[in-house]
Amino acid sequence: MSTSQGAITCKVCWGLGMTVKLEEIQVDPPKSGEVRVKMLCASICHTDVSGIQGSPYVNGFPLVPGHEGVGVVETVGDEVKNLKEGDMVIPTYIGECGHCRNCVSGKTNLCLTYPFRITGFMPDNTSRMSCRGKKLQHTWTCATWSEYTVVNANYLLKVDPGINLAHASFISCGFSTGYGAAWKEAQVESGSSVAVFGLGAVGLGAISGAKMLGATKIIGVDTNEMKREKGKAFGMTDFINPQDSDKPPSELVKELSDGFGVDFSFECTGVPSLISESLAATNMGTGKAITIGAPNEPIVPFNHTAILAGRTLKGSVFGGLKTMSDLSIVADKCQKEEFPLQELFTHEVPLTDISKAFDLLKEPNCVKVVIKI
Asked: What residue stretches are annotated with the Enoyl reductase (ER) domain (predicted)?
């Protein structure tokens, strides 16, 4: 690592189409309202994989991937009041101003002042990263697969410096997205029944949230038999492997829920067909399904009959969690070890071996790959 006129040269993983490689890049000093963060730990979300392949949620290339991680503040720009050098922080892709129409409504976490950005640039539409004279795009204001990144201070959550780094990375998106979907979006009720489609970090977070809110039947649905024990660790009561039956998953869920379906359902895979299945698995007239997974295509086929029968389908970004108000609560629970997050930690690679992480994701026993920086 070297510095030149305030810029930092560091190793970073960035994608161009189907390629991922390690490059020496320049990370500029923060501008007013921004912070430069020395990343300590990151992790891989399946959205990162689809983003590198050119999903509709990534605007273009070249791109510095990664939106999960934790680091320490290295440099503070002008006008930053709430952070200082040495603070431990989690980069996020949604801010919270507390004053805009959405923030004060209490109905959504999608702040209008500091929104979810897929442009690939900072709020002023410029970049702080470059490689061989070419500007690089930041993934969702985060760009965590880098030794250093620059983030607008309104997209950073300060956390306890003693927090487990890998666990902090897990709650920066995946686990918290599922947990928040049960807590904030669905508002799962005590004594209710729940189905969760896809038992990755997001799905296990949804199970954990449903358990916390008092759901008495929590059905996990996954084609990977190894997820059975993972689901139980987070509070799952029943497991369905759709490959064991010729029936559609929604019918299998109904068989475990008095034949009528569950009260709440969570689609955590992004597989288009499962959006309709997750909705059809809920009770007619009152069932509520939350779609969390991000499909590779912006338009997907949908079974209109399922929603016509009085069910509700709701989309979710970051599980409905507000960065300051809600993620801070999740971080506190993480610090107190109220979640079995060690069950998510299955593999670790250094940033220099980032390509190996993509192979590990294909392993049946893989839940989360930690990137040590």
From this structure: 17-371
